[in-house]
Design goal:
With about 425 residues, this protein is mainly α. Helix content is about 85%, strand content about 0%. It contains 16 helices and no strands. It is globular and about 65 Å long. It starts with a helix and ends with a helix.
Amino acid sequence: MNKTTTKSISKNSLRLTLLCFFVYYLAYLGRYSYSSNINGVIDYFSISKANAGSIATCFFISYGIGQVVNGLLCKRYNPKIAISLALAVSALTNLFFPVLGENSFELLRLLWLINGFAQSVLWSSIIRLLNENLPKNSLKGAILIMALPVSMGTFTIYGLSSLLSALSVPFKGVFLIAGGLLLAIALIWFVNLDSLKNACRKEREADEASVAQPQSAGSKRGNLEAGLLVSFGVLALFAIINNFVKDGLTTWLPVIMKEKYLLDDAISIFLTLFLPFFAVFGSTLAIFLNQRLKNHILVCGVLYLSAFLLFIPVIIFFNQNYWLLTLVCFILVACAMSGVNNVITNIFPMLHLGKINAGTLAGVMDGFCYVGSAITAYGIGSLADNFSWETVLYLFVAVCLFTILICAVYMIVARLQNKKKAQ
């Protein structure tokens, strides 16, 4: 293969991956437009933290259920139409939000249920699309690029919310901007997908035709499937806890900064920006750790151990006016949780070619993640209302410790089984 062809393959793969990146990046603006303005929502509707969190819970429930459904059905979808429609519906739910009056809080639940299900179409369809059309030598680059939109999208929407708050622009303006951008990317996707997909598919077919495919031993297949099933079960549990902690911090940090340290809304939201900004490094760290440790479960265990240790100084100094210490520790926890998320929803599905449909695996794993999100949105708000933020911190520590124990048991059992096989 000549240099020109190699360059052409690289360019087409990059273009398709970047298009997928921007779709998911902008989708996060329509996903967290509510959570990034939760202080404004509480004041506007005059509601409790638990009620405010219940709207996010509605989103996460429909998103989690939708991820499982769409993960199983995504092979039947035309990604051009499915993703364009999903983006358009999410855009409309955001654009409708600003017309809601102060007594329309219940209608917001329905809107965010619809938004959640619409957005659940995206991830499994994107991972399936990349997995089926990119040349295999481009998949590792795609994994790195697709690790970024979650953190960057969250950073952008919280930054936009902070900026508008500082400029005294009503928080509803965020929903208008998010909705407009979602409609724009839906149109760009619809117009450009077919040409990029076809170019990448031709290059993939040419690569596969030039490389002999090795036959896997039938005797190893049963062990491989059993090992994959166990890994899936452990990672599914880790996924729930991951988003419980990750979204718990992102959703409620502005409220903690406002209530505990008496910072105003603009500063509280601005400080939350640092969580997704530095979380990008956590996603990259997960790729590095996975290359070194070569074990998805162990990588997650190391990252959960880091989060556990970081929560300890926050608990010790939480009742003193050390908001900067709290912020720094939460930033580093967000890095660790972003790494876990990348392992579960990106690295694990993309690196299991031929064993299970990547879109199905990505969708189902992401669905488990949002079980944790659904719990944390309402549960943390209710816990803070009825007890205290200190109680919330103790719960975060407990769930991190639980994952560490699960990882330790898994590694011990795996090592004992390897010793038996070696004998």
